[in-house]
Fold this sequence. Notes:
The protein is an alpha/beta fold and 378 residues long. 28% of the residues lie in helices and 26% in strands.
Amino acid sequence: MTDADLIVIGAGLSGCALVARLRQLGWVGQIALVEAGRGPGGRSASRRRRDRTAWRLDHGAPGLHFSQPVVAELNPLLSRMREAGVLVEEPTAIISIDSDGQPAENAPKAQPDGGWWRGMPCMASLCEHLLEQAGPEQLALHWQRRVRWLSRRDGLWTLSDQDNTWQLRGRSLVLSGNLLAHPRSLAMLNWPDVPLRAAVPPGVDGDLDQALNQLARCRADVRWNLMLDLPLEGSTLPRQICLTAEAQQRWRVERLVLQPQADGRTGLVMHGLHDGSNITPESQPDLLARQEKRLIAGLEQMLVGMPSLQAACRLATSLGVMRWGASQPLDHPLQQQLQWCPISEVGFCGDYVEGTGFGRGQGALESGVLLAKRMVSA
Ligand SMILES: Cc1cc2nc3c(=O)[nH]c(=O)nc-3n(C[C@H](O)[C@H](O)[C@H](O)COP(=O)(O)OP(=O)(O)OC[C@H]3O[C@@H](n4cnc5c(N)ncnc54)[C@H](O)[C@@H]3O)c2cc1C
């Protein structure tokens, strides 16, 4: 008995690109997409509010930062997103400030050669669109299911949640996030094992052994993103305010992202950098409170050169801090040739796979379409 031919864990850009591209290539078979969050997007998701239902706040990636050329296999998905108006270019919406809070020459990251693009009306629209492209037939979506246990027996994968109250069985498995395959789960979540390693012991599948060794070397950077509701109409404000290297060092903030809302107010997301503190289930609540306090405190001086925004920030309401656990992989990408391990029928996609878009939305999308190609020709 199986629930699906393919189970994909994670409905971020890579997992959604994988299922959309598989369908474009004519792959038939039942797919189950399992996601810990309430909806699609992952680190390119958008926060909604219960008290103001028209609000959409891009609290992770505020846009996609493309480098040329993108892999050819991605163009059919990108063209459809552009035609549908869910992926739009924002040519002039980025400014930079220096460590005195004054306008600076644009920081290097502000001018990628393939331009800045964003989801419309919000970043989550990109993944929503990809899932529509995948078609509702033979695609089962499992939201708010966090996979904890993996096992493989008699050529079948079985997945279950922490309490074993929910299970799913499938022939092939793809991990988009890499937490289930990376030793950081041992410290961060107090898990005694790396789930994928526990499911397939060393020596059974040489490709998987290599993939797990490479993944273990990939380090990720943590971000603390503070979300604020500002009493300010934001249509004339820049979309992103990047900080120069000195300014980032001074305030431990990478950039401020502004998003005008339908009710005439503005959402502001401060992308706070990590200070190296040890994150465990026990330390997290205190760390969240500390980050919120220090990020709010920095705004006054940071925005000294933009008095109307500075004044609005004094009246802002905090919507809390979001910790992004694997914000961008820093080094040691997973080699593309190890993206699919045929003996165990397990694959990987995500921004941690090697390629020009490594560590960014582009890399996530590219890894999804490249894995689809590999799986169709396998
Ligand atoms: C703060 C921030 C700013 C960024 N800025 C930019 C930018 O300006 N430009 C750019 O190009 N990129 C940017 N990025 C990077 C970009 O967001 C990512 O590269 C991209 O979204 C990654 O997509 P993904 O599918 O690889 O991973 P993810 O989006 O992380 O998707 C993985 C999904 O798997 C789910 N998942 C993981 N484990 C489990 C489990 N056990 N059970 C169920 N579900 C699970 C997660 O919930 C998640 O939804 C930024 C990222 C962050 C966090």
